[in-house]
Every structure is written in C-alpha cells, then in structure tokens.
Amino acid sequence: MPELPEVETTRRGIAPHLVGQRVIQVIVRDGRLRWPVPEHLSAQLPGCTIKDVTRRGKYLLLHTTMGTAIMHLGMSGSLSITPAVQPPRRHQHVDIVLAEGHCLRLTDPRRFGCVLWTQDDPGRQPLLARLGPEPLTQEFSAEVLYRAGQRRHAGIKSLLLDSHVVAGVGNIYANEALFMAGIYPVRAARRIAFPRYQRLAEAVVSVLNAAIRAGGTTLRDFVGGDGRPGYFKQSLLVYARTGAPCLACGAAIRQLRQGQRSSFYCARCQR
DNA sequence: ATGCGGACCTGTTAGC
DNA sequence: TGCTAACAGGTCCGCA
Length: 271
What we know:
Distance between the termini: 28 Å
Radius of gyration: 20 Å
Strand content: 15-25%
Order of helices and strands: HEHEEEEEEEHHHHHEE
Largest sheet: 4 strands, antiparallel
Number of strands: 10
Strand order of the largest sheet: 1-6-7-5
Low-confidence stretches: none
Structural class: alpha+beta
Helix content: 25-40%
C-alpha cells in the first residue's frame, strides 16, 4: 500500500496526536509481523513520552524519551488514531495506548509490516543504516542515480526500486517517474546517458512532492492518519492505466512484468 | 558486487 | 454461483 508519499501523509496525520503524549501501554494482539514484535517493546515503551515522529524512506520513527519505535507498513499496513476503548477489528494487530485515552492502532492484513524498538541511535539500526539517500533532500541527485546505475545491467526501474540506492520509491512512483522522464522501464541502467538521469531525478522529486500534496495515492483502501483517502490516483499518468490512451501522445499504455512487478509505460514516449 | 527467484501473508478480482 | 489462479502499494534473504 504505502510508498513514501503515503507514509509521509500518515506521519503528518498522526504526529499532532502523538507528540508530547505519554505511552501507558502497548497491546500486541498478533505479533507475527514481518519480524515478531519484540517483547521489550511492550516492556520499555510504556512510561515514555513521544518527542517526535519522523520518517526515513518508508519507515516511521516514534522518538521517545527512552528509545525509538520503528514502524513499517509493508504492503497493506495503515495507522490510525483511535479511541482506546474502541473494540479492535480484524487485522488491527498493535495498539500503542496513550495517557489521554486514545491510541495509535496498526492495521495490517498481510502482516508484511513491522514494529521494532531500539534504544540506540536509530540511524544505526541495520534496516535504516543501509538505506540510500532521502529523495526529497539535498543528498539525492542525478549523480547518485547515475553512479549506482553504471554497474547495473538490469532495467532502470529496478534501480529506482532499490532502497539502498534511493529510499522510499515504490512501484507506483517508479513507473510514474520513468514516464515523466521518457525512459523505458526495462532499459539497462548503464545504457542511459547522464542528461536523462537528470530528467529522471527531477521526475522522482516532482512526482513524490505532487503525491504528498494530494495526500498520497489511494488505489483501494489507503487512508492517511486522519482517516482520509489520498487523491493522487486521479493524477497517475501510467500506473494501472493499461490500454488507456497515453496522456501525452494517445498511444495505448502497455503493461509488462519485471521481476514479479508490473510496469506500465508508453511505448512511443518512453525509450 | 549484481541479479534473480522465493519467501513472508491475506484479500480481491478475473476467468472458467 | 462457485472454485481456482493470479495479482496487489514491500523488501529481505539465499543462491547463482
């Protein structure tokens, strides 16, 4: 479900309800997420006050006085602010209960998400330590992509999806950015000249920013932390538009599979 | 080091 | 209407 814009939308939705709040309890109804929810989370998070909520790639970080909870929403996860007394529904696996009667509730049908806990510098957590630069900061640039691309025979789309190259770009926005840059998703990364990487890097930044402004993309069930869907679906140029006319040239959008993921592209506009 | 396939899960939809 | 197969927004791991 969530790529960077959806996670950022979630962050903005939940942060005002969390910052400054004290955690009084952690309820784990089903800890069988991507990694088991650690026992010490339930032991150590209660009593802590949440200082800040940040994002790194697709990870959300709850910084507290005693440590940091690291959450990922996987494919199907979402977070909401809920009255603590509200009975949990199916797939609502974890509650972080706050002193003032509400809780942060994690819903994740497929259980590909995770909730972890660290008392160390979260940047040193192995999952975060190896992430590539944030695409919406100065750390990210055409040079970053170009350099990583020089060694790669595989298609450019797999480079964009590699979180160790750039963090947070998922299947929707990789497809969109490649269309905006006029690059065929299967084109070998090393066979793309630098000026085209410049267009690509600009497209990544621009599509992510636009999606955040729209509150993310709701394909079926994504809702941000405030319970509202995202409106970027209306702005998608190629994703899930197989057979529909290209908005630039009118040719039918095509679909292929690259390593178990769907790619959508215009054969006329993208080379 | 890269690149590929499999793994982890459930829910929805397309097709017979 | 019902069964089955394919597919879905992620990403780690192990093996070539």
